[in-house]
Amino acid sequence: MNADETTHPRDRSYEDSVVELFQQDPEVAIELLNSILADGEPGELLIALRQMAKAFGGVTAIAEKANLNPTQLYRTLSEEGNPSLSSLTAILKVMALRLAVEKDMVDAA
Q: Is the dihedral of CA 22, 40, 42, 101 positive or negative?
């Protein structure tokens, strides 16, 4: 490979780097989702889900495996998206993940 063919980190987008990280280590994606669900904003969750969809084969592939309409899934994962519980469950299932409920460690006082 010559110098013209190498890819420098600065030539890649942040999102591409995150997608590659999720592909290499899915546990990072799981930790990120759990962190967002604990402390984050809904928009952050949608960004992470979009990145994970790319890492797991792309939105179209996820939609097909989850029996969802690809166009609707793109909208659902957009910045203005508002995924239903059934859509979110289906998307996560394709990624071999699931939602879980656990006790919040913060006192409800």
A: positive
> Is residue 87 in a domain?
yes
Within-domain flag for 60: yes
Which residue shows structure tokens 């990624």? 95
Do residues 92 and 98 touch, judged by C-beta distance below 8 A?
A: yes
pTM above 0.85, yes or no: no
Task: Measure the CA–CA gap between 85 and 99, rounded to whole angstroms.
Answer: 10
- Any domain includes 102: no
The HSE-up count of residue 26 (CA atoms within 13 Å, CB side) is: 9
Tell me how many domains the chain contains: 1
- Is 80 exceeded by the pLDDT of residue 45? yes
d(C-alpha 68, C-alpha 21), whole Å: 26
